[in-house]
Every structure is written in C-alpha cells, then in structure tokens.
Amino acid sequence: MLTLPPSVRIYLAATPVDGRRGIDSLAGMVLSDLSLQPLSGHVFCFVSKRRHQMKILFWDRTGFVLVTKRLERGCFRLPAVIAPGATHVDLESPELTLILEGIDLHRSRRRARWSPPSDLVSR
C-alpha cells in the first residue's frame, strides 16, 4: 500500500504514452499536456499504449524520481470514468495501489465517505 500525505495528489494521464519516454519527456508532458507543475511534489502516472507498462513520476525536493512497472501478463485496468476531453484523472492512493497490482476497478464499488456537516466546517 502506498502511504502518501493527504496534500499529495495523484494524477493519471488520460492518453497513453510511448513506453520509452524518460524523465524529461514525461515532465514536459505534465507541463504542456496536463497543464500541471511537475515540481509540485504530486504524483503523475502514465500508461503505455498497450497498457502493460506504467511510469510514475514525482519530484522529491532533490530531483525527479521515475518508477516503472511492467506487467508480465495482462494489462493495467484503468478507471472507466474518463470524461471526454479530460487530460487527466485524479486518483487516490488505494486506487493506484490496486491498479499497480493489476486489479480491475470496474467491478469495485466505492462506499460513500463521511464528511463533516457544513455548519461545522464554516466555523
């Protein structure tokens, strides 16, 4: 399980990328295609065209870190709900963990989360 602080967001690029891309190319994509800042400390995920390889890019205050995972069998099952024209999808840490394990999220069901009543938040 990935443990990330709540301030770190996880973005999954909506379009597949060439699996040979490196750090500089992916950081450029974050800036130009996703319109996000690669030095923000957030996590950026990219899936190859055949969906058997995923690259995860993030900045850790001293440099970029690039993690690659290749499935030997099957492919990564991405979230089904990607809005037309969207450049990226926001993920949560448990979702990314399940995707990396090759688990299909289409059949899973998210339970409603608790949120504080609005009168408590406004105080």
Oligomeric state of the chains?
single chain
Note the main sheet: 5 strands, mixed
SSE arrangement, N to C = EHEEEEHH
Strand content: 15-25%
Tally of distinct domains = 1
Number of helices: 3
Global geometry: globular
> Whole-number radius of gyration?
16 Å
Strand arrangement in the largest pleated sheet: 4-3-2-1-5
Helix content: 10-25%
Which residues form runs of ≥5 with pLDDT under 50? none
Summing up helix and strand content along with how strands pair, one would put the structural category as alpha+beta
Strand tally is: 5
* N-C termini distance: 35 Å
Integer average pLDDT: 87
Give your account of this protein's structure.
It is a single chain. This protein has 123 residues and is α+β, with helices and mostly antiparallel strands. It has one domain (10-108). Helix content is 18%, strand content 22%. The protein contains 3 helices and 5 strands, in the order βαββββαα. The protein has helices at 23-32, 93-100, 118-121, and strands spanning 10-13, 43-47, 53-59, 64-70, 88-91. It has a 5-stranded mixed β-sheet with strand order 4-3-2-1-5. The longest helix is centred in the N-terminal third of the chain and has 10 residues, at 23-32. The model has no long low-confidence stretch (mean pLDDT 87).
